[in-house]
Design brief:
Blueprint: H1 3-8, H2 16-21, H3 26-31, H4 43-62, H5 69-90, E1 95-97, H6 114-123, H7 143-153, E2 157-161, H8 164-176, E3 180-184, E4 190-192, E5 195-196, H9 197-204, E6 207-211, H10 219-225, E7 230-236, H11 252-259, E8 266-271, H12 288-294, E9 298-302, E10 313-317, H13 319-326, H14 329-334, H15 338-353, H16 356-359, H17 361-367, H18 370-384, E11 390-400, E12 403-416, H19 421-429, E13 434-436, E14 438-440, E15 443-447, H20 456-474
Parallel strand pairs: 1-13, 3-6, 3-7, 7-8, 8-9
Antiparallel strand pairs: 2-10, 4-5, 9-10, 11-12, 12-15, 14-15
Helix pairs in contact: 4-5, 6-15, 7-15, 8-9, 18-20, 19-20
Bound molecules: pyridoxal-5'-phosphate (PLP).
Protein backbone atom coordinates (compact mmCIF):
# COMPACT_ATOMS: atom_id res chain seq x y z
CA UNK A 1 0.00 0.00 0.00
CA UNK A 2 1.04 3.58 -0.51
CA UNK A 3 3.03 5.08 2.31
CA UNK A 4 1.02 8.27 2.15
CA UNK A 5 -1.95 6.27 3.29
CA UNK A 6 -0.08 4.62 6.16
CA UNK A 7 0.86 8.00 7.54
CA UNK A 8 -2.81 8.88 7.98
CA UNK A 9 -3.58 5.98 10.30
CA UNK A 10 -3.72 6.90 13.94
CA UNK A 11 -4.32 10.56 13.18
CA UNK A 12 -7.50 12.37 14.07
CA UNK A 13 -10.79 11.33 12.46
CA UNK A 14 -11.10 11.93 8.76
CA UNK A 15 -14.08 13.57 7.17
CA UNK A 16 -16.67 11.37 5.46
CA UNK A 17 -15.38 12.41 2.04
CA UNK A 18 -11.82 11.60 3.00
CA UNK A 19 -12.82 8.23 4.37
CA UNK A 20 -14.65 7.42 1.15
CA UNK A 21 -11.73 8.64 -0.91
CA UNK A 22 -9.38 6.42 1.02
CA UNK A 23 -11.43 3.24 0.59
CA UNK A 24 -9.10 0.64 -0.91
CA UNK A 25 -9.66 -0.62 -4.42
CA UNK A 26 -10.61 -4.24 -4.95
CA UNK A 27 -7.17 -4.91 -6.43
CA UNK A 28 -5.43 -3.42 -3.43
CA UNK A 29 -7.29 -5.74 -1.09
CA UNK A 30 -6.68 -8.76 -3.28
CA UNK A 31 -2.97 -7.90 -3.42
CA UNK A 32 -2.79 -8.28 0.35
CA UNK A 33 -2.93 -11.99 -0.39
CA UNK A 34 -4.92 -12.64 2.75
CA UNK A 35 -7.35 -14.94 1.04
CA UNK A 36 -5.99 -18.29 0.12
CA UNK A 37 -7.70 -19.31 -3.10
CA UNK A 38 -9.35 -22.44 -1.78
CA UNK A 39 -10.35 -25.38 -3.92
CA UNK A 40 -13.92 -24.34 -3.47
CA UNK A 41 -13.62 -20.66 -4.27
CA UNK A 42 -12.14 -19.24 -7.41
CA UNK A 43 -10.25 -15.99 -7.77
CA UNK A 44 -13.30 -14.62 -9.58
CA UNK A 45 -15.54 -15.49 -6.65
CA UNK A 46 -13.14 -13.89 -4.15
CA UNK A 47 -12.96 -10.76 -6.29
CA UNK A 48 -16.76 -10.52 -6.24
CA UNK A 49 -16.88 -10.87 -2.48
CA UNK A 50 -14.12 -8.29 -1.95
CA UNK A 51 -16.03 -5.90 -4.20
CA UNK A 52 -19.16 -6.45 -2.12
CA UNK A 53 -17.10 -6.02 1.07
CA UNK A 54 -15.82 -2.65 -0.14
CA UNK A 55 -19.41 -1.69 -0.96
CA UNK A 56 -20.54 -2.62 2.54
CA UNK A 57 -17.83 -0.38 4.04
CA UNK A 58 -18.78 2.45 1.71
CA UNK A 59 -22.42 2.22 2.85
CA UNK A 60 -21.37 2.22 6.50
CA UNK A 61 -19.31 5.36 6.03
CA UNK A 62 -22.14 7.06 4.16
CA UNK A 63 -24.46 6.10 7.03
CA UNK A 64 -22.20 7.94 9.45
CA UNK A 65 -20.01 5.17 10.81
CA UNK A 66 -16.39 6.18 11.19
CA UNK A 67 -13.99 3.63 9.75
CA UNK A 68 -10.25 4.14 9.69
CA UNK A 69 -8.16 2.31 7.17
CA UNK A 70 -7.25 -0.65 9.39
CA UNK A 71 -10.91 -1.06 10.27
CA UNK A 72 -11.93 -1.05 6.64
CA UNK A 73 -9.51 -3.81 5.75
CA UNK A 74 -10.53 -5.87 8.79
CA UNK A 75 -14.19 -5.53 7.90
CA UNK A 76 -13.64 -6.53 4.29
CA UNK A 77 -11.66 -9.58 5.40
CA UNK A 78 -14.36 -10.53 7.86
CA UNK A 79 -17.03 -10.08 5.20
CA UNK A 80 -15.21 -12.35 2.75
CA UNK A 81 -14.59 -15.00 5.43
CA UNK A 82 -18.31 -15.02 6.26
CA UNK A 83 -19.20 -15.44 2.59
CA UNK A 84 -16.71 -18.31 2.25
CA UNK A 85 -18.15 -20.10 5.27
CA UNK A 86 -21.76 -19.57 4.25
CA UNK A 87 -21.07 -20.76 0.73
CA UNK A 88 -19.28 -23.91 1.92
CA UNK A 89 -22.35 -24.69 4.05
CA UNK A 90 -24.49 -24.59 0.90
CA UNK A 91 -22.52 -27.27 -0.95
CA UNK A 92 -24.37 -30.57 -1.41
CA UNK A 93 -23.38 -32.63 1.59
CA UNK A 94 -24.51 -35.43 3.88
CA UNK A 95 -27.58 -34.58 5.95
CA UNK A 96 -28.87 -36.74 8.78
CA UNK A 97 -32.58 -37.03 8.15
CA UNK A 98 -34.39 -36.91 11.48
CA UNK A 99 -37.69 -35.77 9.99
CA UNK A 100 -39.24 -39.23 9.88
CA UNK A 101 -40.15 -38.66 6.22
CA UNK A 102 -38.56 -41.62 4.45
CA UNK A 103 -38.64 -40.40 0.84
CA UNK A 104 -37.87 -36.77 1.64
CA UNK A 105 -37.80 -34.97 -1.70
CA UNK A 106 -35.78 -32.03 -0.33
CA UNK A 107 -33.22 -34.50 1.00
CA UNK A 108 -32.85 -36.41 -2.27
CA UNK A 109 -35.52 -39.12 -1.80
CA UNK A 110 -34.12 -42.66 -1.46
CA UNK A 111 -30.75 -43.06 0.28
CA UNK A 112 -28.83 -45.80 -1.53
CA UNK A 113 -27.72 -49.20 -0.31
CA UNK A 114 -23.98 -49.47 0.45
CA UNK A 115 -23.57 -51.79 -2.55
CA UNK A 116 -25.16 -49.18 -4.83
CA UNK A 117 -22.90 -46.47 -3.41
CA UNK A 118 -19.80 -48.64 -4.02
CA UNK A 119 -20.79 -49.26 -7.61
CA UNK A 120 -21.48 -45.58 -8.15
CA UNK A 121 -17.99 -44.70 -6.95
CA UNK A 122 -16.49 -47.29 -9.29
CA UNK A 123 -18.49 -45.93 -12.20
CA UNK A 124 -17.32 -42.40 -11.47
CA UNK A 125 -13.99 -43.45 -12.99
CA UNK A 126 -13.70 -45.03 -16.45
CA UNK A 127 -16.23 -47.84 -16.51
CA UNK A 128 -17.51 -50.42 -19.01
CA UNK A 129 -20.78 -48.61 -19.54
CA UNK A 130 -20.82 -49.29 -23.29
CA UNK A 131 -18.10 -51.89 -23.60
CA UNK A 132 -18.35 -55.66 -23.61
CA UNK A 133 -15.26 -56.70 -21.66
CA UNK A 134 -15.32 -60.26 -23.03
CA UNK A 135 -15.16 -59.29 -26.71
CA UNK A 136 -13.68 -55.82 -26.38
CA UNK A 137 -16.49 -54.56 -28.59
CA UNK A 138 -18.95 -51.80 -28.06
CA UNK A 139 -22.10 -52.91 -26.26
CA UNK A 140 -25.50 -51.41 -25.70
CA UNK A 141 -25.42 -48.89 -22.87
CA UNK A 142 -26.42 -50.48 -19.57
CA UNK A 143 -27.43 -53.70 -21.29
CA UNK A 144 -27.12 -55.85 -18.17
CA UNK A 145 -29.26 -53.44 -16.12
CA UNK A 146 -32.10 -53.72 -18.65
CA UNK A 147 -31.83 -57.50 -18.58
CA UNK A 148 -31.93 -57.59 -14.79
CA UNK A 149 -34.94 -55.26 -14.72
CA UNK A 150 -36.79 -57.53 -17.13
CA UNK A 151 -35.86 -60.59 -15.06
CA UNK A 152 -36.97 -58.93 -11.84
CA UNK A 153 -40.32 -57.70 -13.09
CA UNK A 154 -41.20 -60.43 -15.56
CA UNK A 155 -41.49 -57.86 -18.36
CA UNK A 156 -39.93 -58.47 -21.77
CA UNK A 157 -37.61 -55.47 -21.82
CA UNK A 158 -36.74 -52.17 -20.15
CA UNK A 159 -35.36 -48.68 -20.77
CA UNK A 160 -34.21 -46.14 -18.22
CA UNK A 161 -34.40 -42.34 -18.40
CA UNK A 162 -33.85 -39.42 -16.02
CA UNK A 163 -37.02 -39.71 -13.95
CA UNK A 164 -40.59 -40.90 -14.20
CA UNK A 165 -41.74 -37.53 -15.53
CA UNK A 166 -39.32 -37.93 -18.45
CA UNK A 167 -40.51 -41.51 -18.90
CA UNK A 168 -44.12 -40.35 -19.22
CA UNK A 169 -43.16 -37.77 -21.81
CA UNK A 170 -40.97 -40.14 -23.79
CA UNK A 171 -43.50 -42.97 -23.80
CA UNK A 172 -46.40 -40.76 -24.93
CA UNK A 173 -44.31 -39.08 -27.58
CA UNK A 174 -42.85 -42.25 -29.04
CA UNK A 175 -45.97 -44.40 -29.14
CA UNK A 176 -48.89 -42.00 -29.52
CA UNK A 177 -47.56 -38.87 -31.22
CA UNK A 178 -50.33 -36.72 -32.74
CA UNK A 179 -52.94 -39.25 -31.64
CA UNK A 180 -55.42 -39.35 -28.79
CA UNK A 181 -54.46 -40.67 -25.40
CA UNK A 182 -57.37 -41.58 -23.17
CA UNK A 183 -57.20 -40.74 -19.47
CA UNK A 184 -59.73 -40.64 -16.63
CA UNK A 185 -60.60 -37.17 -15.28
CA UNK A 186 -59.89 -38.57 -11.82
CA UNK A 187 -56.28 -39.11 -12.85
CA UNK A 188 -55.44 -35.76 -14.46
CA UNK A 189 -53.04 -34.98 -11.67
CA UNK A 190 -50.15 -32.69 -10.90
CA UNK A 191 -47.18 -34.88 -10.09
CA UNK A 192 -45.36 -32.12 -8.22
CA UNK A 193 -43.19 -29.15 -9.03
CA UNK A 194 -45.94 -27.86 -11.33
CA UNK A 195 -45.65 -30.89 -13.59
CA UNK A 196 -49.27 -31.38 -14.67
CA UNK A 197 -50.47 -34.22 -16.80
CA UNK A 198 -52.39 -32.10 -19.35
CA UNK A 199 -49.21 -30.03 -19.90
CA UNK A 200 -47.15 -33.18 -20.29
CA UNK A 201 -49.59 -34.40 -22.95
CA UNK A 202 -49.27 -31.12 -24.81
CA UNK A 203 -45.48 -31.14 -24.60
CA UNK A 204 -45.36 -34.74 -25.79
CA UNK A 205 -47.50 -33.83 -28.81
CA UNK A 206 -50.44 -36.10 -28.02
CA UNK A 207 -54.10 -35.21 -27.81
CA UNK A 208 -55.69 -35.45 -24.39
CA UNK A 209 -58.96 -37.39 -24.41
CA UNK A 210 -60.55 -37.08 -20.97
CA UNK A 211 -63.18 -39.58 -19.89
CA UNK A 212 -65.39 -40.01 -16.84
CA UNK A 213 -65.65 -37.57 -13.95
CA UNK A 214 -63.39 -36.59 -11.08
CA UNK A 215 -64.74 -39.27 -8.80
CA UNK A 216 -66.19 -41.91 -11.10
CA UNK A 217 -64.94 -43.41 -14.33
CA UNK A 218 -66.30 -46.67 -15.72
CA UNK A 219 -64.90 -49.15 -18.17
CA UNK A 220 -67.72 -48.12 -20.51
CA UNK A 221 -66.34 -44.53 -20.53
CA UNK A 222 -63.07 -45.82 -21.97
CA UNK A 223 -64.86 -48.08 -24.42
CA UNK A 224 -66.98 -45.21 -25.70
CA UNK A 225 -63.89 -43.05 -26.27
CA UNK A 226 -61.83 -45.61 -28.19
CA UNK A 227 -61.75 -44.96 -31.92
CA UNK A 228 -59.53 -44.73 -34.98
CA UNK A 229 -57.57 -41.84 -33.48
CA UNK A 230 -56.76 -43.58 -30.22
CA UNK A 231 -52.99 -43.90 -29.72
CA UNK A 232 -52.96 -45.21 -26.16
CA UNK A 233 -54.80 -45.45 -22.86
CA UNK A 234 -52.93 -44.29 -19.78
CA UNK A 235 -53.70 -45.06 -16.17
CA UNK A 236 -52.03 -42.83 -13.60
CA UNK A 237 -51.68 -44.13 -10.07
CA UNK A 238 -53.05 -41.80 -7.36
CA UNK A 239 -49.71 -41.72 -5.68
CA UNK A 240 -49.76 -38.32 -4.06
CA UNK A 241 -53.41 -37.95 -3.07
CA UNK A 242 -56.25 -40.09 -1.82
CA UNK A 243 -59.82 -40.21 -3.01
CA UNK A 244 -62.40 -41.60 -0.65
CA UNK A 245 -66.17 -41.82 -0.67
CA UNK A 246 -68.23 -42.20 -3.84
CA UNK A 247 -65.37 -43.16 -6.13
CA UNK A 248 -64.72 -45.82 -8.72
CA UNK A 249 -62.36 -46.49 -11.59
CA UNK A 250 -61.48 -49.68 -13.47
CA UNK A 251 -58.48 -51.66 -12.26
CA UNK A 252 -55.50 -52.17 -14.56
CA UNK A 253 -56.63 -55.79 -15.00
CA UNK A 254 -60.06 -54.66 -16.19
CA UNK A 255 -58.61 -52.04 -18.53
CA UNK A 256 -56.25 -54.55 -20.14
CA UNK A 257 -58.91 -57.24 -20.48
CA UNK A 258 -61.35 -54.81 -22.10
CA UNK A 259 -58.81 -53.51 -24.62
CA UNK A 260 -57.06 -56.73 -25.48
CA UNK A 261 -58.75 -57.25 -28.86
CA UNK A 262 -58.04 -53.70 -30.04
CA UNK A 263 -54.26 -53.80 -29.54
CA UNK A 264 -54.30 -50.25 -28.20
CA UNK A 265 -51.32 -49.98 -25.84
CA UNK A 266 -52.17 -49.59 -22.16
CA UNK A 267 -49.69 -47.48 -20.22
CA UNK A 268 -49.57 -47.82 -16.45
CA UNK A 269 -47.89 -44.86 -14.74
CA UNK A 270 -47.27 -46.37 -11.32
CA UNK A 271 -44.90 -43.77 -9.92
CA UNK A 272 -43.81 -45.43 -6.71
CA UNK A 273 -42.32 -48.63 -8.17
CA UNK A 274 -43.21 -50.90 -5.30
CA UNK A 275 -41.71 -54.40 -5.73
CA UNK A 276 -42.83 -55.93 -2.44
CA UNK A 277 -46.21 -56.60 -0.93
CA UNK A 278 -46.13 -53.97 1.80
CA UNK A 279 -49.53 -54.82 3.27
CA UNK A 280 -47.85 -56.56 6.24
CA UNK A 281 -46.53 -53.10 7.16
CA UNK A 282 -49.97 -51.59 6.76
CA UNK A 283 -49.27 -50.02 3.37
CA UNK A 284 -51.23 -50.85 0.27
CA UNK A 285 -49.29 -49.84 -2.82
CA UNK A 286 -49.86 -51.46 -6.21
CA UNK A 287 -46.86 -53.59 -7.16
CA UNK A 288 -44.97 -53.51 -10.44
CA UNK A 289 -45.35 -57.25 -10.89
CA UNK A 290 -49.10 -56.98 -10.52
CA UNK A 291 -49.25 -54.62 -13.51
CA UNK A 292 -46.94 -56.86 -15.53
CA UNK A 293 -49.11 -59.91 -14.82
CA UNK A 294 -52.23 -57.92 -15.62
CA UNK A 295 -50.70 -57.42 -19.07
CA UNK A 296 -50.13 -53.65 -19.21
CA UNK A 297 -48.07 -52.88 -22.32
CA UNK A 298 -45.84 -50.29 -20.69
CA UNK A 299 -45.29 -49.68 -17.00
CA UNK A 300 -43.50 -46.59 -15.68
CA UNK A 301 -42.07 -45.93 -12.24
CA UNK A 302 -39.42 -43.92 -10.44
CA UNK A 303 -36.12 -45.48 -9.38
CA UNK A 304 -35.89 -43.40 -6.21
CA UNK A 305 -39.24 -43.98 -4.55
CA UNK A 306 -40.18 -47.39 -3.11
CA UNK A 307 -37.79 -49.12 -5.54
CA UNK A 308 -35.10 -47.68 -3.26
CA UNK A 309 -32.52 -46.77 -5.92
CA UNK A 310 -31.12 -43.71 -7.68
CA UNK A 311 -33.23 -41.03 -9.35
CA UNK A 312 -34.39 -42.37 -12.70
CA UNK A 313 -37.51 -43.31 -14.63
CA UNK A 314 -37.86 -46.99 -15.41
CA UNK A 315 -40.00 -48.14 -18.32
CA UNK A 316 -40.71 -51.85 -18.65
CA UNK A 317 -43.05 -53.69 -20.95
CA UNK A 318 -43.56 -55.44 -24.24
CA UNK A 319 -40.48 -55.61 -26.45
CA UNK A 320 -42.17 -54.09 -29.50
CA UNK A 321 -43.05 -50.92 -27.60
CA UNK A 322 -39.74 -50.71 -25.76
CA UNK A 323 -37.94 -51.01 -29.13
CA UNK A 324 -39.99 -48.15 -30.47
CA UNK A 325 -39.11 -46.02 -27.42
CA UNK A 326 -35.43 -46.88 -27.67
CA UNK A 327 -35.37 -45.57 -31.24
CA UNK A 328 -36.92 -42.23 -30.34
CA UNK A 329 -34.51 -39.30 -30.70
CA UNK A 330 -35.79 -38.11 -27.30
CA UNK A 331 -34.25 -41.22 -25.76
CA UNK A 332 -30.76 -39.87 -26.38
CA UNK A 333 -31.67 -36.60 -24.71
CA UNK A 334 -33.11 -38.30 -21.64
CA UNK A 335 -30.65 -41.11 -21.08
CA UNK A 336 -29.12 -41.53 -17.64
CA UNK A 337 -25.45 -41.25 -16.73
CA UNK A 338 -23.16 -44.17 -15.88
CA UNK A 339 -23.35 -43.60 -12.12
CA UNK A 340 -27.12 -43.86 -12.15
CA UNK A 341 -26.88 -47.05 -14.19
CA UNK A 342 -24.35 -48.51 -11.74
CA UNK A 343 -26.48 -47.70 -8.70
CA UNK A 344 -29.61 -48.99 -10.40
CA UNK A 345 -27.86 -52.22 -11.33
CA UNK A 346 -26.83 -52.84 -7.72
CA UNK A 347 -30.30 -51.98 -6.42
CA UNK A 348 -31.90 -54.36 -8.93
CA UNK A 349 -29.50 -57.13 -7.92
CA UNK A 350 -30.56 -56.69 -4.30
CA UNK A 351 -34.24 -56.99 -5.28
CA UNK A 352 -33.43 -60.10 -7.33
CA UNK A 353 -31.58 -61.71 -4.44
CA UNK A 354 -34.67 -61.21 -2.28
CA UNK A 355 -32.78 -58.98 0.16
CA UNK A 356 -34.67 -55.75 -0.50
CA UNK A 357 -36.27 -55.43 2.94
CA UNK A 358 -33.01 -55.93 4.80
CA UNK A 359 -30.58 -54.17 2.45
CA UNK A 360 -32.39 -51.26 0.85
CA UNK A 361 -32.47 -48.37 3.31
CA UNK A 362 -35.93 -47.21 2.19
CA UNK A 363 -37.53 -50.58 2.84
CA UNK A 364 -35.57 -51.22 6.00
CA UNK A 365 -36.74 -47.89 7.44
CA UNK A 366 -40.29 -48.51 6.31
CA UNK A 367 -40.45 -52.00 7.80
CA UNK A 368 -38.74 -51.27 11.14
CA UNK A 369 -41.13 -51.76 14.05
CA UNK A 370 -41.73 -48.97 16.54
CA UNK A 371 -39.97 -50.87 19.34
CA UNK A 372 -36.71 -50.93 17.32
CA UNK A 373 -36.95 -47.18 16.89
CA UNK A 374 -37.63 -46.69 20.60
CA UNK A 375 -34.47 -48.63 21.45
CA UNK A 376 -32.57 -46.45 18.96
CA UNK A 377 -33.81 -43.42 20.91
CA UNK A 378 -32.44 -44.92 24.15
CA UNK A 379 -29.09 -45.56 22.46
CA UNK A 380 -28.91 -41.99 21.25
CA UNK A 381 -29.61 -40.62 24.74
CA UNK A 382 -26.88 -42.89 26.08
CA UNK A 383 -24.42 -41.66 23.47
CA UNK A 384 -25.21 -38.01 24.15
CA UNK A 385 -24.07 -38.78 27.69
CA UNK A 386 -24.77 -35.76 29.90
CA UNK A 387 -28.11 -34.08 30.55
CA UNK A 388 -29.74 -33.08 27.28
CA UNK A 389 -33.31 -32.44 28.31
CA UNK A 390 -34.29 -35.04 25.68
CA UNK A 391 -37.43 -37.04 26.20
CA UNK A 392 -38.50 -40.11 24.22
CA UNK A 393 -41.91 -39.53 22.68
CA UNK A 394 -44.19 -41.47 20.34
CA UNK A 395 -44.60 -39.84 16.93
CA UNK A 396 -45.62 -40.66 13.36
CA UNK A 397 -43.33 -41.17 10.38
CA UNK A 398 -44.40 -40.84 6.75
CA UNK A 399 -43.39 -42.50 3.50
CA UNK A 400 -43.26 -39.12 1.71
CA UNK A 401 -42.09 -38.38 -1.82
CA UNK A 402 -45.66 -38.43 -3.04
CA UNK A 403 -46.05 -42.08 -2.11
CA UNK A 404 -48.73 -43.64 0.08
CA UNK A 405 -50.27 -40.27 1.07
CA UNK A 406 -51.91 -39.93 4.44
CA UNK A 407 -50.34 -43.14 5.76
CA UNK A 408 -48.70 -42.58 9.11
CA UNK A 409 -46.29 -45.11 10.58
CA UNK A 410 -45.95 -45.36 14.37
CA UNK A 411 -42.52 -44.28 15.48
CA UNK A 412 -40.50 -42.77 18.32
CA UNK A 413 -38.31 -39.72 18.55
CA UNK A 414 -36.43 -37.44 20.91
CA UNK A 415 -38.14 -34.25 21.92
CA UNK A 416 -36.03 -31.35 23.18
CA UNK A 417 -38.58 -29.29 25.05
CA UNK A 418 -36.08 -27.40 27.21
CA UNK A 419 -34.23 -25.73 24.36
CA UNK A 420 -35.46 -23.05 22.01
CA UNK A 421 -36.66 -25.17 19.08
CA UNK A 422 -35.73 -22.78 16.29
CA UNK A 423 -32.25 -22.00 17.69
CA UNK A 424 -31.49 -25.69 18.14
CA UNK A 425 -32.80 -26.53 14.66
CA UNK A 426 -30.65 -23.83 13.04
CA UNK A 427 -27.60 -24.92 14.98
CA UNK A 428 -28.09 -28.59 13.98
CA UNK A 429 -28.47 -27.65 10.33
CA UNK A 430 -25.30 -25.57 10.26
CA UNK A 431 -22.58 -28.10 10.92
CA UNK A 432 -21.14 -31.31 9.55
CA UNK A 433 -22.97 -33.53 9.08
CA UNK A 434 -26.03 -31.30 8.93
CA UNK A 435 -29.05 -32.55 10.85
CA UNK A 436 -32.62 -31.86 9.76
CA UNK A 437 -35.30 -32.41 12.39
CA UNK A 438 -38.93 -31.45 12.77
CA UNK A 439 -39.97 -28.28 14.60
CA UNK A 440 -43.38 -28.88 16.15
CA UNK A 441 -45.34 -26.25 18.09
CA UNK A 442 -42.54 -25.16 20.42
CA UNK A 443 -40.10 -28.04 20.50
CA UNK A 444 -37.66 -29.82 18.24
CA UNK A 445 -38.41 -33.46 17.48
CA UNK A 446 -35.94 -35.92 16.01
CA UNK A 447 -37.79 -38.95 14.57
CA UNK A 448 -35.23 -41.74 14.56
CA UNK A 449 -36.97 -43.95 12.00
CA UNK A 450 -35.04 -42.21 9.23
CA UNK A 451 -31.71 -42.12 11.12
CA UNK A 452 -29.37 -45.02 10.35
CA UNK A 453 -27.57 -46.80 13.19
CA UNK A 454 -24.19 -45.65 11.87
CA UNK A 455 -25.42 -42.05 12.10
CA UNK A 456 -26.15 -42.25 15.84
CA UNK A 457 -22.59 -41.39 16.88
CA UNK A 458 -22.20 -38.32 14.64
CA UNK A 459 -25.74 -37.27 15.59
CA UNK A 460 -24.88 -37.52 19.31
CA UNK A 461 -21.77 -35.40 18.75
CA UNK A 462 -23.69 -32.74 16.83
CA UNK A 463 -26.37 -32.69 19.57
CA UNK A 464 -23.81 -32.34 22.37
CA UNK A 465 -22.20 -29.39 20.55
CA UNK A 466 -25.49 -27.73 19.65
CA UNK A 467 -26.91 -28.09 23.17
CA UNK A 468 -23.68 -26.75 24.74
CA UNK A 469 -23.70 -23.84 22.27
CA UNK A 470 -27.27 -23.08 23.21
CA UNK A 471 -26.36 -22.90 26.91
CA UNK A 472 -23.36 -20.64 26.23
CA UNK A 473 -25.52 -18.25 24.28
CA UNK A 474 -28.09 -18.00 27.05
CA UNK A 475 -25.46 -17.63 29.80
C1 LIG B 1 -43.74 -39.56 -8.59
C2 LIG B 1 -44.56 -39.82 -9.77
C3 LIG B 1 -44.16 -39.38 -11.03
C4 LIG B 1 -42.92 -38.56 -11.21
O1 LIG B 1 -41.80 -39.29 -10.95
P1 LIG B 1 -40.37 -38.57 -10.92
O2 LIG B 1 -39.44 -39.71 -10.92
O3 LIG B 1 -40.36 -37.75 -9.68
O4 LIG B 1 -40.26 -37.74 -12.13
C5 LIG B 1 -44.95 -39.67 -12.11
N1 LIG B 1 -46.09 -40.37 -11.97
C6 LIG B 1 -46.51 -40.82 -10.77
C7 LIG B 1 -47.79 -41.57 -10.69
C8 LIG B 1 -45.76 -40.56 -9.63
O5 LIG B 1 -46.16 -41.01 -8.45
Amino acid sequence: MRSARESTSGEKRLSKTDQLRKLPSVDEVLRLDLFAVSQRHSRQQLTDWVRQGVQVCRSRIINGESLDEANVIAQIIEFVRQQQAADAGQAIQHVINATGVILHTNLGRAPLAPLAIDRMIQAARYANVELDLASGRRSRRGQRVMKLLAQLTGAEDAVVVNNCAAATMLVLQSIASAREVIVSRGQLVEIGGGFRLPDVFRAAGVILREVGTTNRTYLSDYEAAVGDDTGAIIRVHHSNFRQTGFVTEPTIDELVAAQRPSEIPIIDDLGSGCMEDLSVYGLSEPTVTHSVRAGADLILFSGDKLFGGPQCGIVIGHARWIDRIRQSPMMRAMRVDKMTLAALEATTEIHLRGDAISELPVLRMLSADAETIRRRCEQLIERIGGPSGAEIVACDSQVGGGSVPGRLIKSFGLKFANSDAETLAVSLRSGLPAVQGRVTADSLLLDLRTVHDHELEPLATRLRDALAGGQDASA
